[in-house]
Specification:
Blueprint: H1 8-17, H2 25-32, H3 34-44, H4 46-71, H5 87-92, H6 95-105, H7 107-117, H8 121-127, H9 138-145, H10 158-188, H11 194-205, H12 210-218, H13 225-247, E1 252-262, E2 277-287, H14 299-306, H15 343-359, H16 368-371, E3 388-389, H17 400-413
Antiparallel strand pairs: 1-2, 2-3
Helix pairs in contact: 3-4, 6-7, 6-10, 7-10, 9-10, 11-13
């Protein structure tokens, strides 16, 4: 090296940067020991330690920036148009999908954020008694304990409590990493607002004050108030089309109820101080299940002709059937159980025990297998029913005319009205 007038660092750099010696045994052996070399320099050389930190920081910053740019790209699947949102997108939203997406596309950044968030995890885990006091949500604590093996009549062991709290803390840390990365990615590209859009719609459904929404928007946690309004308008249009399409089938059930809203204003006036309470009506529509067809509903005409409330039938009301819902109780005569109790009392007893096991203290969860299932008489299959909310109606159900107005308006929304 003296004859060539080069230093040792220059020789090593030239050797490593040359493609000619890329697979040379000496080069491969040197690169395999690079971690040990860096650790030794970082440990015994103050100047080398500083240089390593600066170099590593520059390398990782470029890596992080490139990974964030990749997540912000148009084909990343994180772009979301609030003005075109639909119900299916809301139902399919799963934060676990964001976890796998971010963890897969930016693994080093994901791990770095995790290390920063968990820097005091061991200290917290060792300094507190791992019980419910370490958890913010008591229900989440008991839900986590439900999957553990709890012995009957024995208090929950410390190891099980530690496992439950650690699971909750890990979930909370994962959610925080998703939020942090979502903010970073949205700062690069404003169109990458998948999480922010979902949070914005949730804030709207929870009646969050506008000032709070605007604050969260500035923090990068939510879309703007205008974008939220566009999302709600898109969902309303989709709901309106769905209601009309299902209403045409004539196989829909309708329900409505009144509710009151106190519309408080910041500009208080004497003449309007008592007019803030509004009486409104909400409506729900859901399709009939279990294969119900129009032929099955032909019996409604016969029932209406036999009703004592039908004033359009010439036959006297005394000769018609005055059936009520109480007649349904006679379909299955009451039978007595082994202890002489009726079926109704047997079911009530089972329901009390079931609620105690499902929603009571953790001690009773150990008796879950002993409760079993109730004995059914004629079981109706359980199906998931689509429920669609109708537009709010300005009618008062406390009057006959108000009820007629509510029914007429609800049917009109489904496309059933006089032409």
């Amino acid at each position: 090296m003296q004859l060539l007038q080069i230093t040792l660092p220059q020789f090593i750099l030239g050797l490593l940067s040359s493609k000619k010696y890329e697979k040379d045994p000496v080069v491969l052996d040197f690169t395999s020991q690079i971690n040990n070399i860096i650790e030794i320099v970082n440990k015994y050389s103050e100047t080398g330690k500083k240089n390593i930190q600066v170099t590593a920081n520059n390398i990782m910053m470029k890596t992080y920036v490139s990974k964030i740019a990749r997540l912000a790209a148009e084909g990343s699947g994180l772009h979301f148009d609030a003005a075109c949102v639909n119900v299916q997108q809301l139902e399919e939203f799963d934060i676990d999908d964001l976890v796998w997406k971010m963890k897969g596309d930016a693994p080093y950044l994901w791990e770095t954020i995790g290390e920063v968030l968990s820097s005091h995890k061991e200290q917290r885990m060792g300094s507190v008694d791992m019980n419910i006091q370490s958890v913010n949500d008591e229900d989440e604590y008991y839900d986590t304990l439900e999957g553990c093996n709890i012995n009957l009549g024995e208090p929950t062991s410390k190891s099980i409590r530690q496992h439950a709290v650690a699971t909750i803390m890990c979930t909370s840390e994962t959610n925080k990493k998703v939020i942090i990365l979502s903010i970073l990615v949205q700062n690069t590209n404003q169109k990458v607002n998948y999480l922010q859009c979902m949070l914005g719609i949730f804030l709207q459904s929870a009646h969050t004050p506008q000032k709070v929404v605007e604050t969260l928007t500035q923090m990068g946690l939510s879309i703007s108030v205008t974008s939220i309004s566009s999302a709600i308008l898109s969902l309303s249009k989709e709901s309106n089309c769905t209601i009309k399409s299902l209403g045409c089938t004539m196989l829909m059930a309708y329900a409505y109820d009144n509710f009151d809203v106190d519309l408080k204003t910041s500009d208080q006036r004497v003449e309007k101080s008592n007019n803030t309470l509004k009486h409104l009506t909400s409506g729900l529509l859901f399709p009939l299940q279990h294969g119900t067809s129009l032929d099955d509903l032909h019996c409604l005409h016969f029932l209406w002709e036999q009703s004592v409330h039908n004033i359009h039938v010439p036959a006297p009301a005394e000769g018609r059937m005055g059936r009520t819902y109480r007649d349904l109780l006679e379909l299955h005569p009451e039978s007595r159980g082994g202890a002489g109790t009726s079926c109704r009392l047997q079911y009530n007893a089972w329901k009390i025990l079931s609620d105690l096991v499902e929603h009571g203290p953790a001690y009773f969860q150990g008796f879950k297998d002993m409760v079993g299932e109730p004995e059914f008489v004629e079981a109706i299959p359980v199906v998931k029913t689509l429920i669609i909310a109708a537009c709010t109606m300005e009618s008062i159900n406390s009057t006959v005319s108000g009820n007629i107005q509510s029914i007429t308006s609800l049917l009109a929304q489904a496309g059933i009205h006089d032409p």
